C-alpha cells in the first residue's frame, strides 16, 4: 500500500523515523536513559537491521506479491543458523540447523520453479534477490545485537532505529536529488500504511525483539520469522486477494516443515544430553 504512492526509499525512511519517535516518546515517558559508549555498534546494527532491509524489502515488494515476499523473509533463521558460529563465541552449526537450512532452500526452489523453468521473469528474480539480501543483513544484525550490553531493551531499540533513521533519510535525500523526477503522492492509505509500519512493525516489534534476544538468544529469536510466511500467505490471500498457486502453498509447507524438523531434532538432542 505504501509503495503504490511513495518511492521505496522514502517508505523505509518514514517507517524508521516513526519507529524511532514512537520509542523515543516511550523512553521519555518511562524516564529511561542510555549508558552511552556503544554508538558505533548501534550505527552498524542500524545499517544491517533497518536501513538496508527497509529499503530493499520496499523495493522488492513492488515486483513480488505479499505472500512471496513473506516467504522470502522467512529465510532469516537460515542465515542466522549459518552465520552464528562466525559472530557468536561458542555457537556452532548443528545437524538440526543445517538440515532445516537445506530443507528451507528446497522450499525456495519450489517457490520459484515456474519462473526458473520458463526463464522469462528476471525482474521478479532481482526483487527476490533484494529481499533475500535484506534477510541476510537482518540476520547479521540480530546476531550483533547479542553483543550490546548494559542497556534497557527499549533504549537498544530506540538507538538502533535512531541511527538507522539518520542513515535512511540521508540516502533518501541523496536519491531524490539524483532523480528529482520521482513523484511522491501522499494519500490516506499510503500515510496510514507508513504510520502502521513505523509504530507497530518498527517501534513496538523492535522493542519486543530486543527482549526476546536478551532473554532467549538471537537464534531462538530469529525462529519467529518462520511465522512470517504463514501469516503473509494468509493475509495475501484474504486481504490483498492475491492468487495462491500450488507451488506457493507447497513452498510454504516445505519451509514450515523445516522449522518443525529443527525443533524436533533440537528437542531430542537436548533431552538425550540431559539423560546422559
Compose a concise summary of this entry.
The chain is an all-alpha fold and 276 residues long. It is 78% helix and 0% strand.
* Content-based structural category: mainly alpha
Q: How much helical structure, as a percent, in the residues?
A: over 70%
Q: Tell me about the largest β-sheet.
A: none
Number of beta-strand segments: 0
Structure, described:
This protein is mainly α. The chain has one domain (8-268). It contains eleven helices and no strands. The protein has helices at 8-30, 39-60, 66-73, 76-87, 95-118, 122-145, 153-178, 188-216, 218-222, 227-238, 246-275.
Key terms for this structure?
single chain, 276 residues, mainly alpha, 0% strand
Amino acid at each position: 500500500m505504501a509503495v503504490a504512492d511513495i518511492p521505496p526509499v522514502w517508505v523505509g525512511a518514514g517507517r524508521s523515523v516513526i519507529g524511532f519517535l514512537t520509542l523515543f516518546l516511550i523512553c521519555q515517558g518511562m524516564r529511561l536513559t542510555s549508558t552511552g559508549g556503544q554508538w558505533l555498534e548501534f550505527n552498524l546494527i542500524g545499517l544491517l537491521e533497518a536501513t538496508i532491509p527497509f529499503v530493499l524489502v520496499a523495493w522488492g515488494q513492488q515486483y513480488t506479491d505479499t505472500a512471496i515476499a513473506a516467504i522470502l523473509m522467512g529465510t532469516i533463521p537460515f542465515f542466522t543458523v549459518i552465520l552464528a558460529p562466525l559472530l557468536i563465541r561458542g555457537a556452532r552449526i548443528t545437524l538440526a540447523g543445517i538440515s532445516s537450512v537445506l530443507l528451507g532452500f528446497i522450499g525456495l526452489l519450489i517457490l520459484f520453479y515456474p519462473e526458473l523453468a520458463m526463464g522469462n521473469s528476471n525482474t521478479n528474480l532481482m526483487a527476490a534477490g533484494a529481499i533475500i539480501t535484506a534477510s541476510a543483513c537482518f540476520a547479521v544484525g540480530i546476531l550483533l545485537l547479542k553483543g550490546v550490553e548494559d542497556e534497557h531493551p527499549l533504549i537498544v531499540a530506540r538507538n538502533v532505529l535512531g541511527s538507522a533513521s539518520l542513515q535512511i533519510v540521508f540516502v533518501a535525500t541523496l536519491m531524490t536529488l539524483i532523480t528529482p523526477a520521482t513523484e511522491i503522492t501522499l494519500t490516506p492509505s499510503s500515510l496510514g500504511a507508513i504510520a502502521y509500519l513505523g509504530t507497530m512493525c518498527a517501534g513496538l516489534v523492535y522493542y519486543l525483539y530486543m527482549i526476546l534476544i536478551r532473554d532467549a538468544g538471537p537464534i531462538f529469536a530469529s525462529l519467529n520469522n518462520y511465522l512470517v510466511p504463514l501469516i503473509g500467505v494468509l493475509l495475501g490471500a484474504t486481504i490483498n486477494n492475491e492468487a495462491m498457486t500450488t507451488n506457493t502453498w507447497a513452498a510454504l509447507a516445505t519451509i514450515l516443515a523445516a522449522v518443525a524438523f529443527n525443533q524436533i531434532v533440537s528437542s531430542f538432542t537436548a533431552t538425550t544430553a540431559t539423560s546422559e
